């Protein structure tokens, strides 16, 4: 019985640049994952509540406006608050290199910059999500 | 066929009377002096379609340029887009750019401003001043243009859904300083259709959004006659993943949609059409981009003349700004972007653009630093002053490939324009999700081509050995939010509340009754109503738009 990976792709905040989010969503779907795309202008509350409702394994945030520190922090805080720290948080967009370690320190699993191939994101999820499942099985 | 010397005697000379040739050596490095224009006559060939398809610069169908003497007399406007943080910081950057030889200002606003929220609105948190400057009221606008003579510069403002309000604030600054609105020049982007198609910075549903745009068509020519009240934009369509042909077709279809809406309101085409301007992307495929600009001018001229019955030649001219393709810039090996930008900028110039912004090499990482923005401006200056491409007008005309490609792009774009017309126009096509589907397809197809290495991107999927490089990044001061909130609090404290209330009520009434909103926006700006207050009045009247989440 093959369990399918479930991913929520979200566009937090006011930024409407959704090309990357949509391309990634479609590539993950083509790779056999179940993908929920939230659409534009989501608050952190909306994103986390959708993630819990849909029982996803991972959330991918796409942010090109420069407000990434704020949104990743908020989404992570709400996940922890809701007892959903196990949901993998990853993301991409226009994010300066020096912010990547700061995001990882917040608990963001991976940040994919411009020019990343969709295959890299697929490979990351295929590796990280089953690891998470195994850890849960042992808990 | 009309002879070149007739064109020289008539159109070229007339153009020189307005704007003499630039006092630089119009000679090659070997001392050869090119003529202002070359035609089939010069190489002794016949081109039976010359007049119909190519014509002369400054004459219908404008394939070879909208002005008679083009860059021989006047270079394109080097207009660098800038804006970040507080109004004070951007004002300082503007003054530096003007000192560096820039010839026009171009304002980038932050996301809260673009979406019609004040800086202290809860949804603005984390976004204030991040990808542009924050403007929430006339007080910010006054600071933004402090010490800059509004009659001496032209200002372009990249603002769409709240364009009426932001334009009114600019005009209010001018009024308070005693400037004559008739002398003001500039552009507001104000193209809401491409927001629904591509950039997604919409507030209200399509129909009232277009109504607000047409308010500026009606009010602009009478009150601020030299202002371009719209810049119909393909740039964002392309950045969102379209092809060059789709960009060309959809942008012109948007333009025609506005023309039809204005005609429906009973406006005279020759009164508003001369003030419509355009904005195109310029990407990597060199000849395709050049052909795109030439085809755009030809399509616009033909349709405006024959379909919409415009009689004033200025209504036939497609005047355009161009910007190098942000989406083509790589975060990997960022210095390579300097080469990309130079090649793209050259294509825009060979395509006959009237104004140009060149991207900075670090824009796939963050907002440009002063140094990277300066290199981008210098890139334009090198093309303008060192390459000799400005000696003669439309130098690639008559190239078998360029002329064929110009025809081919026109043919394909017209087929798409006709398809949109059959759907009932752009607004109907938006409502049917046509553009969303087409864009999703085109951008996914491109991504797959890259991943299969059918398309090579240097430094990304080939030639990837990286020399470690530290790119200095422009960081936005987190204090911006505080400074903005304090200024807003002061504005709300010090203004006359009765005047604010009356101005907002006037705006509401105009919206409800379908009157022109522009005079009321000016009243609101002068009364120091905030952007959020004005937009909230309209949100209440028009409702807000939610697009379907389509992947």
From TrEMBL, chain A:
GO terms for molecular function: cobalamin binding; isomerase activity; metal ion binding. Keywords: Cobalamin, Cobalt, Isomerase, Metal-binding. InterPro entries: Acid_CoA_mut_C (IPR006159), Cobalamin-bd (IPR006158), Cobalamin-bd_sf (IPR036724). It comes from Thermus filiformis. Residues 4-132 form the B12-binding domain. The keyword rRNA-binding does not apply. The keyword Metal-binding applies. This is Methylmalonyl-CoA mutase. Its cofactor is adenosylcob(III)alamin. The lineage of its organism: Bacteria, Thermotogati, Deinococcota, Deinococci, Thermales. It comes from the Bacteria.
Automatic annotation (TrEMBL), chain B:
The keyword Thylakoid does not apply. It holds the Pfam family MM_CoA_mutase. Keywords: Isomerase. Residues 28-543 form the Methylmalonyl-CoA mutase alpha/beta chain catalytic domain. Gene3D superfamilies: Methylmalonyl-CoA mutase (3.20.20.240). Signal peptide: none annotated. InterPro entries: Cbl-dep_enz_cat, MeMalonylCoA_mutase_a/b_cat, MMCoA_mutase_a_cat. It comes from the Bacteria. One of its GO terms (molecular function) is methylmalonyl-CoA mutase activity. NCBIfam families: acid_CoA_mut_N. This is Methylmalonyl-CoA mutase.
């Amino acid at each position: 019985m093959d369990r399918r990976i479930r991913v929520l792709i979200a566009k937090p905040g006011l930024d409407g640049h959704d090309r990357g989010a949509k391309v990634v969503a479609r590539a993950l779907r083509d790779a056999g994952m179940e993908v929920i795309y939230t659409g534009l202008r989501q608050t952190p509350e909306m994103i986390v509540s959708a993630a819990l409702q849909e029982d996803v394994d991972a959330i991918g945030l796409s942010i090109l406006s420069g407000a990434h520190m704020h949104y990743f922090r908020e989404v992570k805080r709400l996940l922890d608050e809701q007892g959903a720290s196990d949901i993998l948080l990853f993301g991409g967009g226009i994010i300066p290199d020096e912010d990547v370690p700061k995001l990882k320190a917040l608990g963001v699993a991976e940040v994919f910059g411009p020019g990343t191939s969709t295959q890299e994101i697929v490979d990351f999820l295929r590796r990280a999500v089953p690891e998470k499942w195994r850890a849960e099985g042992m808990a | 066929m009309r002879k070149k010397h007739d064109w020289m005697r008539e159109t070229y000379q007339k153009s020189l009377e307005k704007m003499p040739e630039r006092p630089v050596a119009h000679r090659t490095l070997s001392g050869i002096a090119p003529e202002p224009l070359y035609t089939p006559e010069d190489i002794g060939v016949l081109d039976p379609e010359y007049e119909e398809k190519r014509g002369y610069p400054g004459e219908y169908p404008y394939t070879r340029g909208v002005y008679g003497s083009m860059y021989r007399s006047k270079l394109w406007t080097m207009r660098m887009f800038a804006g970040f943080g507080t109004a004070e910081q951007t004002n300082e950057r503007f003054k530096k750019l003007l000192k560096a030889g820039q010839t026009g200002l171009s304002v980038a606003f932050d996301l809260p401003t673009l979406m019609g929220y004040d800086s202290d609105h809860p949804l603005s948190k984390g976004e204030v001043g991040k990808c542009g400057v924050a403007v929430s009221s006339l007080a910010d606008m006054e600071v933004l243009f402090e010490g800059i003579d509004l009659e001496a510069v032209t200002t372009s403002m990249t603002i769409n859904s709240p364009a009426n309000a932001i334009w009114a604030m600019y005009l209010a600054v001018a009024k308070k300083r005693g400037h004559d609105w008739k002398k003001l020049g500039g552009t507001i982007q104000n193209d809401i259709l491409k927001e629904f198609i591509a950039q997604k910075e919409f507030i209200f549903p399509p129909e009232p959004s277009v109504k607000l745009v047409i308010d500026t068509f009606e009010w602009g020519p009478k009150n601020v006659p030299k202002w371009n009240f719209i810049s119909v934009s393909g740039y964002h369509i392309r950045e969102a993943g379209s092809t060059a042909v789709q960009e060309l077709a959809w942008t012109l279809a948007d333009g025609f949609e506005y023309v039809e809406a204005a005609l429906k309101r009973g406006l005279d085409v020759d009164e508003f059409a001369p003030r419509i301007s355009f904005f195109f992307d310029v990407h990597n495929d060199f000849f395709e981009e050049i052909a795109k600009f030439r085809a755009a001018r030809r399509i616009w001229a033909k349709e405006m003349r024959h379909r919409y019955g415009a009689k004033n030649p200025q209504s036939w001219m497609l005047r355009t700004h161009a910007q190098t393709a942000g989406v083509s810039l790589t975060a990997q090996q960022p210095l390579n972007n300097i080469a990309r930008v130079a090649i793209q900028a050259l294509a825009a110039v060979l395509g006959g653009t009237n104004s140009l912004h060149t991207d900075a090499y670090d824009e796939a990482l963050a907002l440009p630093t002063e140094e990277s923005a300066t290199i981008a401006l210098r890139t334009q200056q090198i093309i303008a002053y060192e390459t000799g491409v400005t000696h003669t007008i439309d130098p690639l005309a008559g190239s078998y490939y360029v002329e064929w490609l110009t025809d081919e792009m026109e043919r394909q774009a017209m087929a798409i324009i006709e398809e949109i017309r059959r759907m009932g126009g752009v607004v109907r096509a938006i409502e049917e999700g046509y553009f969303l589907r087409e864009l999703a397809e085109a951008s996914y197809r491109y991504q797959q081509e890259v991943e299969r290495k059918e398309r090579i991107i240097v430094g990304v999927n080939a030639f990837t050995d990286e020399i470690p490089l530290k790119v200095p990044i422009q960081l936005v001061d987190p204090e911006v939010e505080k400074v903005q909130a304090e200024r807003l609090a002061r504005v709300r404290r010090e203004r006359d509340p009765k005047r604010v209330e009356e101005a907002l009520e006037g705006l509401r009434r105009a919206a409800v009754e379908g009157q022109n909103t522009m005079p009321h926006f000016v009243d609101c700006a002068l009364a120091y109503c905030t952007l959020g207050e004005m937009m909230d009045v309209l949100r209440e009247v028009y409702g807000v738009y939610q697009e379907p989440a389509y992947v």
